[in-house]
Write a structure and sequence with these properties.
Blueprint lengths: L7 H14 L2 H17 L2 E5 L2 H17 L15 E4 L4 H11 L6 H7 L5 E5 L6 H12 L3 E6 L4 H6 L2 E4 L5 H24 L5 H17 L1
Parallel strand pairs: 1-2, 1-3, 3-4, 4-5
Helix pairs in contact: 2-8, 3-8
Length: about 220
């Protein structure tokens, strides 16, 4: 626990260092894969335990609602992100944990919903959560794209997932905080891409211009 030995200024300095060392390319690649999932109508599954489970729920809610432009809320034909948090369904989690063991709480939900081409975002600061690893192992075997979000060493998750975002810290609180920070950054980027806004607006305008030119030439 960094806060036991660091004061606020030192804690924030360490956060800045960690962020400076974060692999930006891996974050961008994850954003790209989520955007492609939206384009292709794939389902994105997220899971994690404890604080990571809370982050999974938070990110799922954000992706479901905040990738959509408010002007499209009443448009039933608007393409929406399809996201399920495996950490959210309390009755299902309790049933599987009580009857078959805690290791199965995520993987058994995947078996109900997942299809080849879907995406699994599995969060574990240590990288060694058995229920997370079991879900990733099953997802790999059934042709899902798997991402592990973890900490410095990555644990077994870094070896098992196809791709990873690893926060360069050994402190669980810092790892989870950075996961949430980058999630919000990815959310904003996805909103811009989906709706042609911000730095993605020009690309959207160019695409619209090309379509108009083709239609005019017909």
């Amino acid at each position: 626990m960094l806060g036991l030995k660091l004061n606020l200024e030192e804690y924030l300095d360490d956060a800045r260092r960690i962020l400076s060392e974060l692999n930006r390319n891996s974050v961008q690649e994850l954003t790209n894969d989520l955007y492609h999932a939206w384009q292709q109508g794939r389902v994105v599954f997220v899971c994690g335990n404890g604080g990571a489970g809370s982050t999974a729920n938070h990110f799922a809610e954000d992706l479901l609602k905040s990738t959509l432009d408010p002007g499209e809320f009443e448009n039933d034909d608007a393409r929406r992100m399809k996201v399920i948090s495996l950490s959210q369904n309390t009755p299902s989690i309790l049933a599987w944990a009580n009857d078959e063991g805690f290791e199965k709480i995520f993987v058994e939900q995947l078996k109900n919903f997942a299809r080849p081409g879907d995406v699994l975002l599995a969060m574990s600061g240590s990288g060694n959560s058995p229920n997370v690893l079991k879900a990733v192992d099953w997802a790999n075997a059934h042709e899902l794209m798997t991402w592990g979000l973890t900490g410095r060493t990555g644990g077994e998750l870094a070896e098992l997932a196809e791709r990873t975002v690893q926060v360069p810290s050994d402190d669980m609180g810092m790892i989870q905080s950075v996961h949430l920070l980058i999630f919000h950054c990815m959310l904003d980027d996805l909103h811009g891409r989906v709706n042609g806004k911000g730095r993605h607006a020009q690309r959207n305008e160019l695409r619209s211009s090309r379509v108009a030119s083709v239609e005019k030439s017909r």
